[in-house]
Design brief:
CATH class of the largest domain: Alpha Beta
Shape: globular
Strand order of the largest sheet: 6-4-1-9-10-11
Strand content: 5-15%
CATH superfamily of the largest domain: TPP-binding domain
Structural class: alpha/beta
Order of helices and strands: EHEHHEHHHHEHEEEEHHHEHEHEH
Number of strands: 11
Helix content: 40-55%
Number of helices: 14
Radius of gyration: 21 Å
CATH architecture of the largest domain: 3-Layer(aba) Sandwich
Distance between the termini: 25 Å
Amino acid sequence: MLMGDVKRGEKLSEVRSVFILGAGFTRAFLPTAPLITDDYGGADLVEKFKGFDHASRVLDLELSRANGQIDIERLMTRLDGRMPYDFDQGANEELGMLLTEVKKSLIKRIQVARSGLVYTDELAEFARYCVDNHLTCITFNYDDVLDEALWNVRPTYTPIGKPYWHPDGGYGFFCRPSQLSVEDTPIEMDVETSMLLLKLHGSINWYPRRGYLKPYVVDAIMHHESWFAGFKLREATRQAISLHMELEPFIVPPVLFKSALVEQPILRLVWHRAYDALRRATRVTFVGYSFPTTDIAASVLFDEVLKTLPRTDIKVVNVAKSKNEKQRTRNAYQAILGPIPEEQFDLRGALDWSRDLVKGQDAIVS
């Protein structure tokens, strides 16, 4: 039961909880997972783009701003959005090449983290909690760590009576498996599973089919990942799939100008589902989310849709140890969302919070 989310005298059926997950959520279960500002192989990128003046200039500026690290969303925003003078200076191609390499660095960091320490049991319990209680999770994360855990709750290839999550319908739109790009396989899954994982900036396991032009139509995106083994694939089939998919996954950073969030039909659909879930929510919990300054769209979303939700029904889960860190965290959230009561902040971190949540002991400990 959703014991930790139910107030005294409130019926379980009346509770509509939404979890909003940021990079700190993944970091809690994978301690070496990258945060927004982190080491994304900056030195290697500098060496690789040594002969490219425009790309080197943008990269050097980012490294100087972040003390040798990279704010991955800020850099991808710069490279994806471009500036008007980039085109006159002939920088367009160079910045596109750098963006491709930055995305590769992000994926590599996530893969390395997944091979290290993982709080597997806790992640599995959190995933089961979400599936069994039909919760909606909204995330700005590109990784597919939670996706895999949700799938593993009850892996199934045909609709079943028990609650389950499946990538075909669990992202809020019908996302075909990549195998269907090369084989005619029967589709039997529901369009919408017991809970939704709404990824507002795309995902590293969403790939456009080759030959489709931007903006991608909804059915151009397919899910492609190692953890989903709907069918045993022959090596020849795997190679054929790779030839039918674009080389880069569909991930969209916050952008400076005409936003892909508006241009891309797939993101318009997912953001609509997120807006609707938040509009209906009676309880919203932010977990490891830091309100990146580049993501104006997210701030507008929360400001507009949560305006009428009582601040006592908004909870913040993050990590802050010192008194100053705790106050900065509270200030950051209250600047966007208004006067959230101090007791609504759980600053122990997502791991401890999730352990209490699945036990029905979702206490606030500041």
